[in-house]
Design a protein that fits this description.
It is a single chain. With 148 residues, this protein is mainly beta. Helices cover 13% and strands 40% of the residues. The chain contains one helix and eight strands, in the order H-E-E-E-E-E-E-E-E. Strands 1-8-3-6 form a four-stranded antiparallel β-sheet, with no helix packed on it. A four-stranded antiparallel β-sheet has the order 2-7-4-5, with no helix packed on it. Strand 4 (65-71) and strand 5 (77-82) form a beta hairpin.
Length: 148
């Protein structure tokens, strides 16, 4: 193995092990409400100094489809990933697909969970919310914060 390949592999393993060692700021391990509502909210508190939020979400009941979105502390829409399976990441100047960059203000934020298709109840889900003081995504200078 060439030295550069070995270094790349070692760096990747280090980053991967650091990511697994990170503790979620909030965890939701529950079942979707069985009422007639189309969606429900999972509130979490964002402290001052946060520059990136990652929401790792999973629908755990086969055949069911849950959609995922985020509202910030003013209840403004910050993104709707729908059935995206990868985690949602929202940062000041970077964000994953389907989500908006912009200020990460302290306060009560919400994961929005849409009940797109519930064929089996109970419908289990698991969500981990990570709050970071340093960004993990590469900068995206071509993306600007949303303005009405």
């Amino acid at each position: 193995m060439r030295a550069s390949n070995a270094f790349t592999l070692a760096a990747g393993l280090l980053v991967s092990s650091l990511a697994r060692a990170e503790t979620p700021a909030a965890t939701f391990d529950d079942t979707a409400p069985t009422d007639a509502s189309e969606f429900f909210e999972l509130p979490f508190t964002v402290p001052a100094g946060t520059v990136e939020i990652e929401i790792d979400h999973k629908s755990l009941t086969s055949g069911n489809i849950l959609d995922w979105g985020v509202q910030d502390e003013t209840n403004a829409f910050r993104g709707w990933g729908g059935g995206n399976t990868e985690p949602a990441i929202i940062g000041v100047d970077r964000a994953s697909r389907s989500y908006l960059t912009g200020a990460i203000n302290a306060g009560m934020w919400h994961v929005l969970v849409g009940k797109a298709q519930i064929v089996t109840t109970p419908s289990h889900y698991h969500v981990d919310v990570y709050l970071r003081t340093a960004a993990t995504l590469a900068a995206q200078p071509e993306r600007r914060p949303y303005k009405d």
